[in-house]
Amino acid sequence: MAARPNQSLPPTLVIHGEADRVTPITDGTKLAEFAIHLGVQTELVCVRDADHGFDLAKDDAQSVDARRHVVEFLATRME
Predict the structure, then answer these.
(1) Minimal CA–CA distance to 36: which of 75, 67, 1?
(2) Gap between the Cα atoms of 67 and 44, Å rounded
(3) What pTM was computed for the model?
(4) Which residue range forms the structural domain that includes residue 60?
(5) 17 within a domain of the structure (yes/no)
(6) DSSP 8-state secondary structure symbol assigned to residue 55
(7) What is the distance between the alpha carbons of residues 54 and 13, in angstroms, rounded to a whole number?
(8) Number of C-beta neighbours around residue 69 at 10 A
(9) 75 membership: H or E segment, kind and range
(10) For residue 28, what is the enclosing H or E element?
(11) Cα separation of the two ends of the chain
């Protein structure tokens, strides 16, 4: 049974590095699952080979892809 949409909480984007040595990827997954359980519009993006605090300002493929997700996420929710 799917949770009803929760209008009191904002849509949530979770971006987590799969190689994070500080916060395990399972924590990011649990956060996204809990938000979904609460009915929050949630998107989880797992960034391959990215460590904790990867730099979104860089021009490597990981950072470019993560920025694209942020832009798309915000663009579709700020209509």
Answers:
(1) 1
(2) 14
(3) 0.82
(4) 12-77
(5) yes
(6) -
(7) 16
(8) 14
(9) helix 61-77
(10) helix 25-37
(11) 28
